[in-house]
Write a structure and sequence with these properties.
It is a single chain. This protein is mostly helical and 342 residues long. It has one domain: Up-down Bundle (A middle domain of Talin 1), CATH 1.20.1420.30. It is 81% helix and 0% strand. The chain contains 13 helices and no strands. The longest helix has 33 residues.
Length: 342
């Protein structure tokens, strides 16, 4: 048990340090390419830090020893990722804004409103469609294949619209500001190639840290008597979603709300469209009561964020986002209760 806990702690330290490196490199790249904060946060940062949780279901599906268990872990990880982002990650952004309210000099979180609404609209469409198709008979192969293709195409359209809106956002004052200095430039000159080098090193460390964290958790699952579905839906996403949370907290602390929120909502679109498409392709893609509950809670949390974005023009009070944390705790209680842990 002691070695597993030590592995968890070391992995967390690696993830925290790598996330700071990645944040610094992403901001530098966005500034040098003259991109908006919406593109930097919702596309570059979101997709880059989504790599660890993308690997978890793929590794589970392709390398699992027992097919039924590996598919359960894969589906749980795929649906658990957007659940974790829409609830706990959003709550942490709200907590960070409240914690650093004096430093931020603003009582509200103010991401770019059009980008936030676009992110939530695409997520609700894609994730809702993927969730509904899980209730169809597995014999509906053509329908499921069609839905998977629609999910992939929807993410392509999302990328096109987000990047197309970039130039207007830069003119409106939402351009990405370059940080003080690229960390790696203290060793090498600040050529743009070294920006990519720092990004590559950071993502590699994030993946290694997340992998170590997951391994430590899996080794603890047996002694702690945690069911596989509870592990895949709750514990694994916490490890793989940690980079998004840390990057968003760093940006929230510095008042970069478009980057902070876009990093979470952009990852939600990625993981609510492409990852479910993978699940539909590679697994039976059916739900049990626990997974169904997580999907309902995810949609409820996303609808709440979308309501706030429409109603309050993306001026979000920290308390509003903390409500999503209550949804997360409610689901945790349901899972632990149904699993017989409490």
């Amino acid at each position: 048990m002691r070695a597993e806990f030590l592995l968890l702690i070391v992995s967390l330290v690696v993830i925290v340090g790598a996330s700071e490196l990645f944040t610094n490199a992403i901001e530098t790249l966005g500034a040098r390419l003259n991109l908006s904060e919406g593109v930097t946060g919702s596309v570059f940062a979101a997709v880059g830090t989504a790599l660890p949780e993308t690997m978890v279901p793929l590794v589970a599906i392709f390398t699992g020893h027992e097919r039924a268990i590996s598919e359960e872990v894969g589906v749980g990880a795929i649906l658990g990722a957007p659940f974790m982002l829409s609830t706990l990650a959003m709550c942490l952004v709200g907590l960070a804004a409240w914690r650093y309210r004096k430093r931020r000099k603003s009582p509200v979180i103010s991401p770019e409103p059009r980008g936030l609404r676009r992110d939530m609209e695409f997520f609700l469409f894609a994730f809702g469609l993927a969730f509904l198709v899980a209730f169809t008979p597995q014999s509906f192969h053509v329908l499921r294949l069609f839905v998977a293709i629609i999910l992939v195409l929807s993410y392509g359209l999302y990328l096109f619209l987000t990047i197309r809106a970039s130039s207007d956002l830069v003119e409106d004052g939402h351009g990405t500001e370059e940080p003080k200095a690229l960390y790696i430039s203290r060793i090498f000159k600040g050529h743009i190639l070294f920006v990519f080098l720092q990004m590559f090193v950071a993502v590699l460390l994030i993946i290694l840290g997340a992998k170590g964290f997951v391994q430590g958790v899996e080794h603890l699952a047996g002694p702690l008597h945690i069911p596989i579905i509870a592990l895949s839906l709750l514990i694994v996403p916490i490890a793989t979603e940690l980079p998004e949370k840390i990057n968003s907290i760093l940006w929230t602390r510095r008042g970069k709300d478009t980057l902070a929120v876009g990093n979470v909502t952009g990852a939600m679109v990625f993981q609510g469209s492409l990852l479910p498409a993978i699940g539909i392709f590679l697994t039976p893609w059916h739900v049990n009561m626990t997974v169904m509950t997580s999907g309902i809670v995810t949609l409820a949390a996303a609808l709440w964020i979308y309501f706030l974005a429409r109603k309050r023009a993306a001026r979000l009070r920290p308390l509003y986002l903390m409500f999503n944390g209550l949804l997360y705790l409610t689901f945790v209680f349901i899972v632990l209760r149904s699993s017989g842990i409490i």
